[in-house]
Recover the amino acids of this structure.
């Protein structure tokens, strides 16, 4: 299972772009919040142009790790990004209900270059007509695409996602296929925090399985095993596999 | 007719500033904070009257301090701005009402648009323009903070500082308007024109424009009604604004 495995429907990762260049190196990372040691002694590195899934149970420190990578929490240890790296961040939750802002205006908060905005929405498969819609009338999948477009506007080298499809059921496969296409065509590295074992199996090259002090990092095919995931999620969890 | 040309110009500028700043207040879901702040100002007005200095300067100082305290407590505790201002306003209002002499209390609550002088008009115009200019510069940062604080932070927005500056702008608009509309009505002007604008706006630029237009219509409409009737300007503004809100609500539902 993992990279190279295909569903009978033909979806899943088809290409594996393993660059040689290391764009991120995390050494001895620890984060404490309010006296609670959330992350302890985390070490891993990431090469350009791969997809890394960060998995773990609730409270494992996945979002804290993302925040540390974005330099939004104090941490000990070292996080070294390659120089001049452009990061695009896609949040999990946004508040757009009853906020009269159009997609064009939202993307305009990042850039006033109309060309960049149109290119960004084209990249994520949104029609040009969506630009004049209010953000709060978009479907869950369209909203996710608009947020990805936001992240893409400044031509990022890496996209960071916090649980990209946590709240949407439809469109999920399409979004992951789009992310893989971006990775393939533009060499964008994708780092996503996810609860979804399907994503790990079919859309990620590498997996970082984390539960505070416990961490396993490696190619998804090697990390995504019942024995190893039991160590992260605990013996009480049930792993369900689809047989194809 | 009581309303003078000065009153109308003051109404235009206060309505504009309240509408502009209020457009963010409604989206930030801070409507109750806006109203509560107007009551906090009573304490500052009371100090001004009792200690014999400009009561509206006193109002501004107390509002400014409240904005700082609210911002600080919000960042250090889990309490929301609404909770903090809610506690502050009941205390300030109670002390303020106890201290303000009865004869001046009515004017404080309802304002006195007829007392507008040319100096008042110039001060209101200059300060309103400054408030709108600063709010305009920070509009993007405020909108990103509303949509997602995480997104805003990743876009290098200092969310705490943005919120603090915004609270100070609201406090300034309140201090500017209470002399003419009274403490009971200025809160309305910061909330309802924006709420009415939201009913009919397909995007942000229209929303902001309508919010300002409705702010001006409410303020000036109230002043004109007050000029021809015995109704004080503050409540007259509220009536004008409510009519606008109901019209836009009907349009939205049709």
């Amino acid at each position: 299972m993992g990279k190279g495995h295909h569903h009978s429907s033909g979806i899943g990762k088809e290409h594996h772009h393993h660059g040689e260049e290391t764009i991120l190196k995390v050494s001895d990372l620890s984060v404490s919040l309010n006296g609670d040691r959330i992350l302890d002694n985390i070490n891993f590195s990431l090469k350009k142009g791969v997809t890394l899934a960060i998995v773990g149970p609730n409270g494992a420190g996945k979002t804290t790790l993302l925040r540390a990578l974005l330099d939004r929490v104090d941490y000990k240890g070292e996080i070294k990004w390659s120089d001049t790296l452009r990061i695009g961040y896609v949040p999990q939750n946004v508040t757009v209900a009853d906020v009269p802002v159009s997609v064009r205006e939202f993307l305009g908060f990042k850039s006033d270059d109309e060309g960049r905005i149109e290119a960004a929405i084209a990249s994520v498969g949104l029609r040009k007509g969506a630009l004049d819609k209010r953000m709060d009338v978009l479907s869950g999948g369209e909203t996710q695409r608009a947020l990805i477009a936001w992240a893409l506007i400044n031509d990022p080298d890496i996209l960071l996602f916090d649980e990209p499809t946590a709240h949407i059921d439809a469109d999920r496969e399409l979004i992951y296929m789009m992310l893989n296409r971006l990775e393939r065509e533009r060499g964008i590295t994708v780092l996503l925090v996810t609860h979804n074992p399907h994503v790990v199996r079919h859309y990620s090259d590498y997996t970082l399985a984390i539960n505070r002090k416990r961490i396993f990092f490696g190619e998804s095919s090697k990390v995504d095993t019942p024995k190893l995931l039991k160590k992260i999620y605990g013996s009480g969890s049930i792993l369900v596999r689809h047989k194809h | 007719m009581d309303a003078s040309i000065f009153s109308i110009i003051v109404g235009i500028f206060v309505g504009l500033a309240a509408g502009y700043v209020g457009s963010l207040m409604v989206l930030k879901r801070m409507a109750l904070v806006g109203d509560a702040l107007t009551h906090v100002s009573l304490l500052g007005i009371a100090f001004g009257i009792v200690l014999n200095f400009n009561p509206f300067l006193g109002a501004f100082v107390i509002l400014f301090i409240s904005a700082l305290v609210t911002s600080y407590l919000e960042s250090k505790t889990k309490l929301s701005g609404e909770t903090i201002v809610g506690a502050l306003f009941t205390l300030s209002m109670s002390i303020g009402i106890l201290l303000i002499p009865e004869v001046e209390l009515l004017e404080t609550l309802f304002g006195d648009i007829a007392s507008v002088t040319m100096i008042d008009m110039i001060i209101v115009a200059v300060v309103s323009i400054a408030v709108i200019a600063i709010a305009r510069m920070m509009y993007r940062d405020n909108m990103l903070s509303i949509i997602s604080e995480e997104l805003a932070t990743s876009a290098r927005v200092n969310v705490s500082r943005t919120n603090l500056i915004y609270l100070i702008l609201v406090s300034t608009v309140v201090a500017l308007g209470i002399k003419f509309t009274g403490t009971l009505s200025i809160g309305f002007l910061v909330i309802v024109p924006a709420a009415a604008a939201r009913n009919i706006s397909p995007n942000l630029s229209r929303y902001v424009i309508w919010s300002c237009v409705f702010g001006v219509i409410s303020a000036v409409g109230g002043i004109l009604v007050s000029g021809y009737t015995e109704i004080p300007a503050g409540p007259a503004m509220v009536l004008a604004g409510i009519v606008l809100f109901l019209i836009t609500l009907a349009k939205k539902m049709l």
Remarks:
- The first helix of chain A runs from residue 62 to 69.
